[in-house]
Design goal:
alpha/beta, Rossmann fold, 8 helices, P-loop_NTPase, AAA family ATPase, AAA_22
Length: 178
């Protein structure tokens, strides 16, 4: 945790439109929150920012501590897990969703942060959101990983309207939209 805070202070620096976001992410690392949702207009640089966060954290830490993945456009839970495992250099073949989840829990326990880009793809349906947050709640509870979502659509209103209090209580929301 201290290494990531040092990274945020030294490596990210100052002087760009993302200064406030950097500060909020630093607060996120030291908070009790498990999830952070960042939304902003398409083309503002969220994906590039997320990529740099992961690259720089992995460069500063001894082992890979950050992993970046996208939410598949189909949004299925199994596809998300497979995509994430592949980002961690694993090749999940012909496994059930439960077997994939077990493999994910074992592997991701080595990481400090999971950055999920294109999170607006989760908003395809309420059922998908509920399944995703059920999965990620289990992952966070069993591994102590922090989860940073980057997307074009705000999540807060969806989480509040669906009464996913468990996620809402455990999250920080930040908007790049002025």
């Amino acid at each position: 945790m201290e290494i990531i805070i040092l990274y945020l202070v030294l490596v990210l620096g100052v002087g760009s439109m993302f200064n406030n976001l950097r500060s909020e992410i630093e607060n996120f690392y030291t908070s009790t929150a498990d999830f952070m949702f960042v939304d902003g207009y398409s083309g503002t640089g969220k994906s590039l920012f997320a990529m740099h966060i992961c690259e720089d954290i992995n460069r500063v830490t001894i082992i890979n501590s950050a992993v970046l993945t996208n939410v598949p456009s189909s949004g299925s839970e199994k596809e998300f897990i497979i995509s994430l495992l592949r980002k961690m250099d694993l090749n999940p073949l012909r496994k059930t969703t439960l077997e994939l989840e077990a493999q994910l829990l074992l592997t991701i326990s080595q990481y400090l942060i999971l950055v999920i880009d294109d999170s607006q793809n989760l908003l395809i349906s309420n059922r998908l959101i509920l399944k995703h947050f059920s999965l990620l709640s289990r992952v966070v509870d069993q591994t102590n990983i922090k989860v940073l979502y980057m997307g074009t659509l705000p999540f807060q209103s969806h989480i509040e309207s669906m009464n996913i209090a468990n996620i809402n209580r455990r999250s920080i929301h930040y908007s790049l939209i002025a």
